[in-house]
Structures are given as C-alpha cells and as structure tokens.
Amino acid sequence: MATLEDLDFPKAVLMRMIKSSLPDTIAIQKEARSAVSKSATVFVSYLAAAANDCARADGRKTIMPNDVYRALEAVGLAEFVPALVVQLEKHSVLVKEKKEAAAKDKAEKEEETETDDERGEGVGEADVDGTNAEPVDEANAETVNGTNAETAEPAVEPTTDLITNPINASTTETHETDAMDIDDPDAKRQRTE
Fold first, then answer.
1. Does residue 188 carry a pLDDT above 70?
2. Within the chain, where are the H helices?
C-alpha cells in the first residue's frame, strides 16, 4: 500500500484549484504549493478513513455520499456539508447530461451509418486508408489498384508465359510432356521413355 509521501494531487489540477480560490494579484511560492498539496493529501486520506468507519458502522464495505457527510460532521467540518450536497447534486446532473448527450450522439451516428448503408453510400472499397472518401459508382465500376472494384478480380487478364519446346525454340505451343512437374519422379520416367 502506498504511503502518504508517495501520494500527491496532479500539479496542474492543484494549481487550478489554488488560482481559482485566490485573487489574481496573489502569487504562491513553490514551497507553499507543496505544502498545500501535502495538506490536501493528508485531509483526503483522513476524510476517507473517517467515511470508511461510518460505512463499516452501517455494515457496508462501500463508502456512500452519506458516509462522507457524516465523516465531515465527525471531524468537525459540519458547516461544509450543505455546500458539498449542492455541489455533488450539480456534478451528478452534469455527468448525467454528458452521458445522455454521448448516447444521443452515438445513436445519431449509428442511424446515419444505417441510412448510408441503405442508400449504398459510404466509403468505397478502394478507400480503406481514408484518402478518397467518395463512394464507388457501382453502375460504372472502375478499376482500382489493378482490380475491378465491383468483382475484386484483376481488371486485365494476366499474360501467361508460354512454355517453349526445348527441342524447337521457335515453337510457341506447349506439349503435355513439357508442362509436367519436373519434381514428380513418374513424370521424369515418362519423359525419358
């Protein structure tokens, strides 16, 4: 388990909190920032331990907001409870709104994708890397990267190399014996016979 010396608030978050509570004309020394950071760490640790005691007293292992409120009262900071309740409620509303907005955005994107799929729109087959986001015109499927975009077959028939008869180099026909697999021992025997 980490000790209090190992724990610290992120410096940027701590500085934002300090600056938001002080006038703009006030500067804070590096040692003072460190003292505020250590004090905040000790306070949060102490409050968490007190809230844990409240939860255990109720027979639970999970700390709930009411445990934190009771812990503040137990450590003599009851005057902060009403403000904390209001701030926690505001925070809960903001989190709920963000989740709803994210869910709405996700649903709209899925609906948009489904609509594009129904129309046959969207990213063409050649646009896997995202460089050309135009849809493929399937009626006039063009060749892309050497393949027919509609059938994914080679656009041009590959030229086959003609095997010439070793006996007659001018002949362009292939003979069945010339096209046999040379690693096949039976084929070798047939050619020699």
1. no
2. 11-21, 30-57, 65-74, 81-119, 185-192
